[in-house]
Specification:
alpha+beta, 6 helices
Length: about 260
């Protein structure tokens, strides 16, 4: 065991490494059967890596528990296989210590988006403040940086966060058409405008349903990076299921009658 202490010396121990590890206090629900060489060798290499991490304070799993696992697994392995597993664990630890760090992948280039993100925040703040002060709703388009998609919402504004003019950290907290609470950075909002309060819109939608008129869809998913393409957009309903919108430009066809 002592020989494995020489690895990962450049890493400081985790602050919580000495705290209890909850899974060790739970009773097992059954026995684990390792009956193939791939499972046995994976358990051995994994146990050796965990042991090395425990010796450097990188995990709350006890080094003694990892050592006990190695002893039990090694009973089912030929000596030749044990040697190969030891060598594989050593190579993995050397790789963790010496591997080169890959550069961050370049982000997609979208000049229009960069222009929007760096534009002034004050005009968006003014519209949001007006909607909050007058009890209005908001309709807006916003960019989701994680999904790389544009969404359109009709929502109820709830509060402004860090609402200082020109502050790119400012955000708008709102309740969208599905009732979800969102915090959207103002820099990620392409446009927004005051509309009637959302509850009024809901009543209109309910009235439409009673009269047989189609109700409005939920949040609209727009094509990235800017708005609609030649194809019609995909609509996202309240259940998160996407379906294509009917092409409204298709001319009416005459009825085929006998």
């Amino acid at each position: 065991m002592e020989s494995w202490r020489r690895y990962l010396r450049h890493l400081a121990p985790r602050p919580d490494a000495q705290q209890p590890f909850y899974p060790e206090r739970v009773e097992p629900e059954g026995q684990a059967l390792l009956t193939t060489m791939d499972l046995l060798s994976a358990a051995y290499v994994g146990g050796r890596l965990i042991e090395a991490l425990a010796l450097r304070g990188g995990t709350r799993v006890r080094a003694g528990a990892a050592g006990a696992l190695l002893k039990r697994v090694s009973r089912a392995l030929p000596e030749e296989v044990v040697n190969h597993c030891e060598a594989e664990a050593e190579r993995a630890l050397l790789w963790l210590h010496e591997a080169e760090t890959l550069p961050e992948p370049p982000s997609p280039q979208h000049p229009e988006l960069d222009l929007m993100l760096s534009s002034d925040i004050e005009s968006r703040l003014q519209v949001a403040r007006r909607a909050l002060n007058e009890g209005q709703g908001l309709e807006l388009e916003r960019y989701d940086a994680e999904e790389h998609r544009w969404y359109r919402h009709r929502a109820t504004p709830l509060a402004l966060i860090d609402a200082s003019a020109g502050d790119l950290q400012s955000a708008l907290r709102l309740r969208d058409e599905r009732g979800d609470i969102l915090e959207i950075p103002l820099k990620a909002i392409r446009w927004l405008m005051p509309v009637s309060p959302l509850n009024t819109a809901d009543e209109e939608a309910n009235d439409g349903a009673k009269t047989g008129e189609p109700s409005k869809e939920g949040g609209e998913l727009l094509n990235f990076p800017f708005g609609r393409s030649k194809d019609r957009p995909t609509l996202v309903d309240d259940l998160g299921e996407a379906h294509p919108e009917v092409d409204r430009d298709t001319p009416n066809l005459p009825d085929e009658r006998d």
